[in-house]
Specification:
Blueprint lengths: L11 H8 L10 H11 L4 E2 L11 E4 L8 E2 L10 E4 L6 H11 L2 E4 L14 H11 L12 H9 L4 H20 L9 H13 L4 H17 L9 H12 L16 H9 L6 H15 L5 H5 L6 E3 L3 E6 L11 E6 L7 H12 L13 E4 L2 E4 L7
Parallel strand pairs: 1-2, 1-4, 2-3, 4-5
Antiparallel strand pairs: 6-7, 7-8, 9-10
Amino acid sequence: MSCDWIPRESNTKADKLSRQSDCDDWGIQSWVFEYLNDLWGIFTCDRFACDYNTKCKMFNSKFYCKGTSGIDAFKQNWTNENNWLVPPPSLITKVINKLTVERCEGTLVVPEWRSAPYWCLKINEHVEAAVLESGVTTDSPLYQLYPKMCKLLLGSRSDNTIKSYFYAFRRWEQYITKLGFAALPAQPIHIALYFTHLLDQGSTFHPIDNAKYGIKWAHEINGLTDPTENSFVSSIQEAAKRTAYKTVTKKEPVTTSTDMLIQLCEKYSDSEDLLIVRDLTMTLLGFAGFFLRYDELSSLLFSNVKVKDDFLVLYLNKSKTDQYRQGNEVLISKGFSVACPFNMYLKYVRLAGFVEGSEMFLFRPVFRSGNTCKLIYKNKKA
C-alpha cells in the first residue's frame, strides 16, 4: 500500500468530515441504564444515540449510521414506545414539550444544571392545576389543549427578552430561597426587601428594573397574581431612579460620515483577504441599510440576499423592530464610490465561494491555513 499526499483543496469532502465535531455527544454509564431499566423499563427505543452508544436495539440518530431506525428523533412517532431519552442539553426543553404534547412515555435523563430553563418549567404544573380547578376533566378536549397553551405562553415574548427575564428571576429565586422563603408565588414585602438589598450592594436602577419585570413575567405566565403591583415595590423602584450613580460617557459613533468608510475601502481596495472583505461588507451593508444591528447582519443567510441589476434586497427574518415576525426587506442601492456596498458584496461572495441556493449563514467565522483564508465549514454566525 502506498500513500500520496494531496492538497486540502482537492480533498474537500474528507477534510470537511474531519473538521466536524459533535460537542453534544455524551452518554451515561451502563449500570445507570440497567438500574433505571429494571425500575421503569423495559425501554424499547433510545431516541438520541448512534450505533456505538445505543442502549436499545431500536434507536434514532442525528446522522445516518448502521442500524438506525430514523434520523432526527423529533420527526419520529414516540407513542406506543417506552422511550429512553438522554438528549443534548440544548434540546431538553424541546424534548419536554414533545413528551407533554404527544403524551408519550419515557425516562428523561438531564444534567443537574439548575440555571437552565428546563429546570424551572413549573409553568406546566401551574397551568394544569388552573385547568383542573376550573372544572375541566382530563378526558375533556379542553384539557388536551393545555400543553399547547404552555408553549404559547412561553412564546409571548422574544427569545432575548425571555432569556433576560428568566435569569433575572433566577437571581431572585436563588437569593430568597437561600433565606427560606418562596420565590413563586412571591410576597411583595420580600421583593421590596430584595430591591433594598440590591441597592445596598451598589446596584443601579437597571438591575432593579430587570428584576421587577423578571419576577412579574414569571408570575404572569404561571397565572399567578403579580406581586410587583405593590406600593412598597413601586416606591423602592422609584427610589432607585433617584439614586446617584456614576455617569456613563458614551462614545461617539465611528460612522458619523462616509469619509472613514471611503478611506478604509481605498486602503484595502486591492485586498483579496476574505477576512478583510467580510468585515468591510458587513460594515457597508450595516451603514447603507440605515445602521442595521449586528445581530440582524450576522443572522443573514446567503439565500436572504437577492442581487438585482443595481440594488440588493436583504430579507431580515428576525429583527428587534419586527416583534411579530412579519418579515422586513431592506433595499441597498448600488453606489459609485469605492465604498459601494453592492460591489463589495459581490466581491465577498466570489471570495467566499458561495453556491447558488446555499442556506448557510452569510457571515461566518474564518480560518487560515498557510496563505489560504476561508469561511469555516460549520454553519455558525460570525
